[in-house]
Amino acid sequence: MAPKKLTKEVIVIIFIIAAALIYLLLQNNEHTNYTVPKLESIDQKGLTKLVIERSEETVGLENKEGNWVLSDKGYHTDKEKVQKALDSISSLKLTELISRSGNEALYDLTTDKRIRVSLFKDEALIRQIDIGKVSGTYHHTFVRLKDGTEVYQAAGSLRSDFDSKTDDWRDKVIFKIDSNEVTGLKMNSAELSYEFSKTVTKTDAAAQAAVGENGPVQPAEAISWNVVGERKDPVKKENIDSMLSKLSDLRCDRFAEESTEAGAVDYAITVLASTPNTLTIYKAEKEDATEILARSSQSPYLFYLSKWSVDGLKKKEADLFELPTDSKDKK
Fold this sequence. Notes:
Blueprint: H1 2-32, E1 47-53, E2 58-64, E3 67-70, H2 79-90, E4 94-99, E5 115-121, E6 124-134, E7 140-145, E8 151-155, H3 159-162, E9 173-176, E10 184-189, E11 193-202, H4 205-208, E12 211-212, E13 215-216, E14 221-227, H5 237-247, E15 249-251, E16 254-255, E17 265-272, E18 277-282, E19 291-296, E20 303-306, H6 307-313, H7 317-320, H8 327-330
Antiparallel strand pairs: 1-2, 1-5, 2-3, 4-8, 5-6, 6-7, 7-8, 9-15, 10-11, 10-17, 11-14, 12-13, 16-20, 17-18, 18-19, 19-20
């Protein structure tokens, strides 16, 4: 009886193993018997339009003679941000099929959550994808191709490249100067009005003729600031330099609505160069305002600067000059 019993047990074990193998085989076929589409990289030369549809709004970007602008108003865009978006969709790489059934809610691909990105060359749509949520590792993003139900995993965290409001796509650099071209500076407010001139002094001839380990030493330059007029107090160079550094590439927080009207001027800074440029700061409507309305001669649009930025640009007399020590403090 023992041999028969052993035979039955062996048969049952073999049957279980066979069933398990069949199950695993079927599962393997379900998940791997497919070909992930290999998307060709898109040549960005000749691209004409990028449309980004979100539940909140649709953003259209158009290529106008090599410059990308917002379609509806023609506003200049943030070049780096637009380029990053173009690179993301042009070089899209699918790595794995995640779902055939298109369970879009699970992957944030429903109409209210997905981001649809469409890329055009002339009037032809050359690529369209729906972007869902980012994976837990932030190394992949769930996407769906045009007219498809399959959900794929794409390389990279793509959502952050497109999940932006219209204002976020605008070029927020509103004041840009080359410090080497600056010759002077004017500051005006109700409390003060000053003009400063820049003096550049090179090292003497002996120092210029010196030879170092790597060859002739380049002439050094010393920059100083002097107030224009009769005032004799020394100028605090570091504060002037700090302000110019902020103005060299100043970005606004956001642009104002077209209906916004400027109020009274609080402070104005004019940077003197071959082409003078002025930053005008308006009085805040409320004492506790965190944003201050301003205008730049380099931009036709009103915009807001953070109060922190404005405070770094506005200077008082004590910020500009080395004032004589009060006689009481000397005692």
